[in-house]
């Protein structure tokens, strides 16, 4: 019997009390275990970072999760973050080179929210730090006081681009997604193509034209109640199929 593929999850580094912890949200792990039929493995974001080749030798794919923290703007030439905006440079130091290494190997990669933004930065793109303040853009943030069901409920539609990877994964060309982000893509990185766009023109999904393996990044959160959403099921199923082709 073939073994289950192993998916690496780079962690967030967060202080709990007086000690640093390395964390991944359970919803991401559950969606991959059940939706992609794969084994989740947490990757700590230590200082110095773990060696990229050794990490990639030990796994079959990667999932880069969302996070309360933002990618540090120094990585894309942006202005210093405002006071109180959470950064996680330990995660940046692990994820940005890890993304490049995985792409070079043609390893299956799925990026979500912060991971979506990390991919754009790793490949040379830039970010809006506050999309809600960009002329012509809507407010893509959720409200902290709302219940989780409201925060992760449908917020706006996206239009899938014909001929894209996402168009091959799902027959739906317009569908509603949740929206819980302040950062968003400004200048698209060279080689990336927009896969889906919101009505205000904000890019919501990307892929890499030259990718040798599965590579999809989405700004929304398909891991939330994934089994109840046909597009989310299709994304995790396609990711699982790509993983099994490497086992």
Structure description:
With 247 residues, the protein is α/β, with parallel strands linked by helices. It has a single domain (6-244), classed as Rossmann fold, CATH 3.40.50.880. It contains seven helices and 13 strands. It has helices at residues 26-35, 52-57, 89-105, 114-122, 148-151, 165-169, 230-244, and strands at residues 6-10, 12-16, 19-23, 39-43, 61-64, 109-112, 127-128, 156-160, 174-177, 184-185, 192-197, 203-208, 215-218. The strands form three sheets. The protein has a nine-stranded mixed β-sheet with strand order 4-1-5-6-13-12-11-8-9, sandwiched between helices. Strands 2-3 form a two-stranded antiparallel ribbon. A two-stranded antiparallel ribbon has the order 7-10. A hairpin with a 6-residue loop joins strand 12 and strand 13 (215-218). Helix 3 packs across helix 4. 43% of the residues are buried. The mean pLDDT is 97.
- Envelope shape: globular
Q: Treating each run of at least 4 consecutive H or I residues as one helix, how many helices?
A: 7
Q: What is the number of beta strands?
A: 13
From the coordinates shown, what is the CATH architecture?
3-Layer(aba) Sandwich
Evaluate the radius of gyration: 17 Å
| Quaternary structure | single chain
């Amino acid at each position: 019997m073939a073994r289950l593929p192993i998916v690496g999850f780079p962690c967030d580094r967060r202080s709990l009390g007086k000690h640093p912890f390395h964390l991944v949200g359970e919803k991401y792990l559950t969606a991959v275990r059940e939706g992609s039929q794969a084994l989740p493995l947490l990757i700590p974001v230590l200082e110095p970072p773990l060696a990229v080749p050794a990490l990639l030798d030990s796994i079959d794919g990667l999932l880069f999760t969302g996070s309360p923290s933002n990618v540090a703007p120094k990585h894309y030439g942006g202005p210093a973050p405002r006071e109180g905006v959470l950064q996680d440079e330990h995660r940046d130091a692990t994820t940005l080179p890890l993304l490049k290494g995985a792409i070079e190997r043609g390893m299956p990669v799925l990026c979500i929210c912060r991971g979506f933004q990390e991919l754009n930065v790793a490949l040379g793109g830039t970010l809006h730090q506050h999309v809600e303040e960009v002329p012509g853009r809507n407010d893509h943030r959720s409200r902290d006081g709302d219940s989780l069901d409201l925060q992760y409920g449908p917020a706006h539609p996206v239009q899938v681009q014909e001929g894209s990877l996402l168009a091959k994964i799902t027959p739906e060309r317009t569908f509603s997604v949740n929206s819980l982000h302040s950062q968003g893509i400004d200048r698209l990185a060279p080689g990336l193509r927009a896969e889906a766009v919101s009505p205000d023109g904000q890019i919501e999904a990307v892929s890499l034209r030259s990718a040798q393996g599965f590579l999809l990044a989405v700004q929304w959160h398909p891991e939330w109640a994934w089994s109840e959403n046909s597009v989310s099921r299709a994304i995790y199923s396609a990711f699982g199929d790509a993983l099994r082709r490497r086992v």
